[in-house]
Amino acid sequence: MSNKEIQEFNEKLRRGLEMAEKRMLQEKALRGQDVVVCGADQIIRRIPAKQVIAENPVFQD
Predict the structure, then answer these.
(1) What three-state secondary structure class fits 41?
(2) Could you tell me if 58 and 18 are in contact, meaning their C-beta atoms sit under 8 angstroms apart?
(3) 3-class secondary-structure state, position 40
(4) Does the N terminus or the C terminus of the chain have fewer Cβ atoms within 10 A?
(5) Contact 52/37 with Cβ under 8 angstroms?
């Protein structure tokens, strides 16, 4: 694989993972469920999926 092919593959993979995460958050938000996250402070928390979507423009339609 050339360097360009590797970069294209990595970009497709990143977009696919982002789409999967968005779908998962939307499903959890519809059910009123929480997600488990670990912040930069290394503390594990449960946060409502709706809050994660609201605080991150990447996950908003």
Answers:
(1) coil
(2) yes
(3) coil
(4) C
(5) yes
The CA distances from residue 4 to 1, 9, 10, 59, in Å, are 8, 9, 10, 28
Mean pLDDT taken over the chain: 94
Is residue 49's pLDDT more than 80?
A: yes
Chain-centre distance for alpha carbon 43: 18
Backbone angles phi, psi at 31, to 5 degrees: -90, 0
Q: What's this model's pTM, rounded to 2 decimal places?
A: 0.81
Max CA pair span of the chain: 45
Task: Report CA Rg, the chain.
Answer: 15
